Amino acid sequence: MLPFWASTHFGNEQYEQDGLYAVYRENITRYLHPFDHTGSILTYFIYLPIYLLPWAFFFIPALFYLKPRWCTLSPNSKWMVFATVLLFLFFSFSGSRRSYYILPVVPYAILMTADWILSGKETLQKRYRLAGITTVTTFIFLAFAFLFIQPVYYSKGGVASFESILKAEASKIKPWEEWRFELLDAESKLNYYLKLSPEIQSQDTETAREKQTTKTLLQEWPILSIQPNDTIIISRKLHGNLLRHILKDYIVVESEPTYLELFLKQKDNNLPVAFIPTRN
Predict the structure, then answer these.
(1) How far apart (Å, rounded) are the C-alpha atoms in residues 114 and 112?
(2) Ordered alpha helix ranges (H), 145-189
(3) Chain mean position to CA 31
(4) Taking the CB of residue 147, how many other CB atoms lie within 10 A of it?
(5) What is the pLDDT of residue 5?
(6) Most buried in the list 43, 93, 109, 130, measured by CB within 10 Å?
(7) What residue ranges of the chain have pLDDT lower than 50?
């Protein structure tokens, strides 16, 4: 048996190795050889204007008037254009694309848009007026959304309600504090909502989610074969049907659909699903 100081040393060394590998995997491997989040090449053409709202209505004409203004732009103005374009291309050329990956481009695009609004003496007052109207209208809309729409949206379904339902069901079998947890390709925000230990990390899957079978899940997640009686297994709805075939004697807890899902008649397969063992 290793002495305490030795086990701590090797534990820290292993942690550092795992941490460095995670940095490499999430930044280099994901960029060159994506293992998930492989969105379309058009992903950022769609989402950048959305993230720029309401200033997207000014950003688009700012792009349109770049060519006739180019010779008169100052070095600082050109720098903002170069930063916006180069960052946009950098993220677009990545093999792994997800809508919010483009967020670092937003500040530069906003600065480029502001530079266009402040240019052109003959149209400056008109642009000022339009920018002011846009600001006031957006403030009123956001105030209404945060004070009224958002509370209604989060009053049903989602991860928050999943947490309360799961606790209620698990506590019928034994106290919540006595349960152990295993996260299998679950969303990281579950640690926050369920107040789990930071040491509990979601296990990734090497096989593409859409190509998973019961055989691949059993190979990648050995705990599915062990099925300990004191452990609640949490994954995402995408794996729900396959896990039901494996965890037959478990109570299944799913997050309820939100009002938006009910309205759009769509199912979010990334929402959590939990399996509670009944043999205790």
Answers:
(1) 6
(2) 150-153, 158-171
(3) 17
(4) 9
(5) 38
(6) 109
(7) 1-12, 14-16
Residue type, 237: K
Domain ranges of the chain: 43-119, 158-277
* 186 DSSP 8-state letter: -
Q: Which amino acid is at 182?
A: E
State how far the Cα of 131 lies from the Cα of 110, in Å rounded to an integer.
13
pLDDT digits (tens, 9 = 90+) for 62-75: 888 888 888 888 88
CA 229/CA 231 separation, integer angstroms: 6
Please tell me the predicted confidence (pLDDT) of residue 196: 80
pTM exceeds 0.70 for this model: no
In DSSP notation, 218-276 reads HHH-THHHH--TTEEEEEEGGGHHHHHHH-TTEEEEEPPPPHHHHHHT---TTSEEEEE
**Contact (Cβ atoms closer than 8 angstroms) between residue 88 and residue 105:** yes
- The pair of structure tokens assigned to 123 is 């149209």
Check residue 123 and give its pLDDT.
73
Residue 16: the pLDDT is 47
Q: Which long-range contacts (CB under 8 A, 24 or more apart) does 140-144 make?
A: none
- Could you tell me the CA-to-CA distances from 55 to 61, 126, 226 in Å, in that order? 10, 15, 54
**Given CA atoms 183, 185, 188, 192 in this order, what sign does their dihedral have?**
negative
